[in-house]
């Protein structure tokens, strides 16, 4: 069995894990995982978990040791609450690796990263300020939207300070997230000349919910928002957004929401309800369903973004 994408591999891994086929899952990850180096940290984590599940604690710890040696780390919640690692708690080598991970987690919280791609010449240029999903990171955001530099946009990808692992960051504390993002937005303006009339706030998954809140509340004066597979606790209950939606009315804000046809992690009916609430309350918003896509970035992002930019009026 061979896989072209990490999503395809992860889907089969999830199915086998649910069926308690732990040995088969480990063998599959050993055979296919190296094809996806951008997900090496997660693959190492899954391999270690499977090794522990089939009664190979020394092998599980060795896999973790190799991951830590490569610079990866897993946060306190993952270390202590992963069911597969319960049997490893208290082992001297496991505890040594845990201590290294905890220190790296503290350092990540202190210094949240942001990656920026943009034209070399002086601007001003339009800005696409894009947030990663929960459990993801800003490097994947760059990969997801990198075609933007082909049309002379600044692409800024801030990374949350709420760190769960070396490649997994979350936006769970929304108040802290918004404060951080306002500061990072300011940092972009200090480095690049930004066109204030063409600022787009964007986000994938929980980053989509966060970007929408940032746009509606208005600490950053954006022209519009682009959300890909937006998800989160309040996306599931669109009526909770009514105060923020009504507050944003009259600010000339427009939005575009993209959802994968086969995205089963996102409640499609609730997304449609959200789009209706936005339109009914004076914030024009378009919904586009991407054929064949699951909860992921489409391969041809520029095609969808150009339609989004035309609708918002920043093309």
From TrEMBL:
<dbReference type="InterPro" id="IPR029058">
    <property type="entry name" value="AB_hydrolase_fold"/>
</dbReference>
<dbReference type="InterPro" id="IPR003140">
    <property type="entry name" value="PLipase/COase/thioEstase"/>
</dbReference>
<keyword id="KW-0732">Signal</keyword>
<protein>
    <recommendedName>
        <fullName>Phospholipase/carboxylesterase/thioesterase domain-containing protein</fullName>
    </recommendedName>
</protein>
<dbReference type="InterPro" id="IPR050955">
    <property type="entry name" value="Plant_Biomass_Hydrol_Est"/>
</dbReference>
<feature type="domain" description="BCE-2095-like N-terminal">
    <location>
        <begin position="6"/>
        <end position="108"/>
    </location>
</feature>
<feature type="domain" description="Phospholipase/carboxylesterase/thioesterase">
    <location>
        <begin position="172"/>
        <end position="306"/>
    </location>
</feature>
<dbReference type="InterPro" id="IPR054527">
    <property type="entry name" value="BCE_2095-like_N"/>
</dbReference>
<dbReference type="Pfam" id="PF02230">
    <property type="entry name" value="Abhydrolase_2"/>
</dbReference>
<dbReference type="Pfam" id="PF22316">
    <property type="entry name" value="ABhydrolase-like_N"/>
</dbReference>
């Amino acid at each position: 069995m061979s896989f072209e994408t990490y999503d395809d591999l992860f889907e089969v891994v999830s199915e086998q894990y649910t069926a308690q086929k732990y040995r088969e899952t480990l063998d599959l990850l050993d055979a296919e995982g190296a094809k996806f180096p951008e997900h090496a940290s997660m693959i190492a984590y899954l391999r270690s978990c499977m090794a522990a599940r089939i009664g190979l604690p020394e092998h599980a710890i060795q896999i973790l040791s190799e991951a830590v040696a490569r610079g990866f780390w897993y946060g306190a919640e993952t270390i202590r609450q992963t069911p597969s690692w319960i049997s490893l708690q208290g082992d001297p080598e496991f505890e040594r690796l845990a201590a290294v991970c905890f220190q790296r987690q503290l350092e990540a919280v202190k210094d949240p990263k942001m990656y920026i791609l943009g034209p070399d010449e002086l601007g001003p240029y339009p800005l696409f300020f894009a947030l990663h999903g929960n459990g993801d990171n800003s490097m994947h955001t760059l990969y997801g939207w990198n075609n933007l530099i082909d049309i002379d946009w600044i692409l800024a990808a801030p990374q949350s300070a709420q760190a769960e692992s070396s490649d997994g960051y979350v936006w769970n504390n929304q108040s802290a997230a918004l404060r951080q993002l306002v500061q990072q937005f300011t940092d972009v303006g200090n480095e690049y000349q930004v066109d204030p009339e063409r600022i787009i706030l964007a986000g994938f998954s929980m980053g989509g919910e966060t970007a929408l809140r940032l746009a509606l509340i208005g600490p950053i004066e954006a022209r519009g928002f682009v959300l890909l597979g937006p998800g989160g606790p309040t996306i599931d209950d669109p009526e909770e957004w009514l105060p923020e939606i009504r507050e944003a009315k009259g600010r000339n804000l427009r939005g575009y929401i993209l959802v994968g046809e086969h995205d089963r992690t996102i409640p499609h009916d609730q997304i449609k309800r959200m789009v209706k609430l936005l339109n009914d309350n004076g914030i024009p918003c378009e919904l586009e369903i991407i054929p064949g896509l699951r909860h992921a970035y489409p391969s041809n992002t520029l095609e969808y973004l150009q339609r989004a930019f035309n609708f918002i009026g920043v093309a």
